[in-house]
UniProtKB/TrEMBL annotation:
Residue runs in coiled coils: none
Pfam families in UniProt: NIPSNAP
Protein name in UniProt: NIPSNAP domain-containing protein
Organism placement in taxonomy: Bacteria, Bacillati, Actinomycetota, Actinomycetes, Propionibacteriales
Organism: Microlunatus panaciterrae
NIPSNAP domain residues: 7-111
């Protein structure tokens, strides 16, 4: 079992016209629920180049290990509060259309290592 700190870089593409709703959900609910499940939000970004910049969210989470990340995501998805928030925010349609995830480890010379 690995105990090396890992980072997860996630990119969300909102459904057309749902970028504002996606950002509101993160700001008002998701961040707090992440922390409840030992997910460490490190940074959130909006791209400045390309199409649909207002509908794209890129963020970085930190975890104690890959196993901790998997356990945190399982707990997060099962959280009744998250399920309620997601359902309420999607009453008028899906908010996030596409999600990409990449797990990373810090290079030995990185300030984050």
């Amino acid at each position: 079992m690995s105990t090396s700190r890992v980072f997860e870089l996630r990119t969300y593409q909102a459904a057309p016209g749902m970028g504002s709703r996606m950002h509101t959900r993160f700001r008002d609910h998701t961040l707090r629920i992440f922390r409840k499940h030992n997910m460490e939000p490190l940074a959130f970004f909006s791209p400045t180049d390309g199409a649909n910049t207002e509908d794209t969210l890129i963020y970085l989470l930190g975890f104690e290990s890959r196993e901790a990340a998997e356990a945190a995501w399982t707990a997060f998805r099962a959280d009744p509060e998250w399920q309620q928030v997601k359902a309420a925010s999607e009453a008028n349609g899906t908010v996030v259309e596409k999600t990409e995830s990449v797990f990373l480890t810090a290079a030995p010379y990185s300030p984050m290592s």
